[in-house]
Design goal:
The structure is a homodimer of 113-residue chains.
Chain A lengths: L10 H12 L2 E2 H11 L8 H13 L3 E8 L2 E8 L1 H26 L7
Antiparallel strand pairs in A: 1-3, 2-3
The structure holds a DNA duplex (30 and 30 nucleotides).
Chain lengths: 113, 113
DNA sequence: TATTGATACATCATTTATCTATGCATCATA
DNA sequence: TATGATGCATAGATAAATGATGTATCAATA
């Protein structure tokens, strides 16, 4: 797990990317997938994920459908049409941001003002 | 400027990297340097920077020295010995985090569970 | 058969990094 | 003499994520 705050702002694009790749997913599955893909380094908390899912649902970015599997209810979330557009811009922004950070981190010390 | 929250957790390592590269710097100079290096995309607010500088000073990560230049007071901050160690781990963590995000963002859609 | 751990959803209070807004002061310029 | 750039500072607001907690089903095990 990374120091508390780095994750901020990255959860939403990560979620959108996952749904974009895999189609409909349910909460528990999302947590496991992120944990697995990040080699255990990113563990989304339920207290973070469910409010985010509900918010994106309310925004019309996600659509939902409940299915009963082995006596347990799973609530599947998928990208709406609007959500697919949103995903493109969210991922673009994150990648842009990361290159900016990378730029600062890799600037040679000799580059003085 | 990026959407509000992405910056969270990155300000400290960015600051440490800057001081590590350039030695002692003062607040206003730091804001300008980050703005310039990020091509205007990252603008640190004074309300964010000064409390951070004071906190790092209190932690013994930074050392300070005031100089009067052209009638204006500049408060220079530099890494302490402890701060140099801290910088190494902070930058390491940020880079590790970024590769993890990159890993998730670039995973091929065909990689299903 | 009782307990534990995994599965599955949910909410509420707390934390905390950053921003907004504001304040003060000096200097250069128009 | 007003404005913008330089320079430091703080207090209150914002909002994302966490921690803590709750409910319930199912599988494994002791």
């Amino acid at each position: 797990m990374y120091s508390k705050e780095l994750l901020k702002g990255t959860l939403k694009p990560i979620l959108l990317k996952l749904l974009s790749d895999r189609g409909a997913m349910y909460g528990y599955e999302i947590v496991q997938a992120v944990k697995q893909m990040s080699l255990g380094k990113i563990v989304i908390k339920e207290g973070s994920l469910y409010p985010l899912l509900h918010a994106l649902l309310a925004e019309g970015i996600l659509e939902t459908e409940s299915r009963k599997v082995d006596g347990r209810t799973r609530k599947y979330y998928a990208l709406s049409k609007k959500g697919k557009t949103e995903t493109v811009s969210a991922l673009g922004e994150l990648e842009d941001f990361m290159s900016t950070i990378k730029l600062i981190l890799t600037t040679k010390p000799t580059t003085q003002l």
